[in-house]
């Protein structure tokens, strides 16, 4: 059984589009699955930095308060 080159090229184009769309769907699902973990890491980092800054501010305030 022989398939003409032009027909074979058209079949490949159709399959390629379907494969790319399937890969895109899987990528979006994987990204959506990872979002909570990425968000929690970013949120924890921001929280830690802000708590550290506030802590240093409170320590500086207490030192100044004790001098007066």
Question: How would you describe this structure to a colleague?
Answer:
This protein is an all-alpha fold and 68 residues long. 93% of the residues lie in helices and 0% in strands. It has one helix at 5-67.
Key descriptive features of the protein:
68 residues; mainly alpha; 0% strand; rod-shaped
Q: What Rg do the Cα atoms give?
A: 29 Å
The number of helical elements comes to: 1
Beta-strand portion reads under 5%
SSE ordering: H
- Shape designation: rod-shaped
Uncertain spans, ≥5 residues at pLDDT below 50? none
Largest sheet: none
* Strand runs, count: 0
Helix content: over 70%
Mean pLDDT: 82
Cα(first) to Cα(last) distance is: 97 Å
Present the secondary structure layout.
Blueprint: H1 5-67
Short description:
This protein is an all-alpha fold.
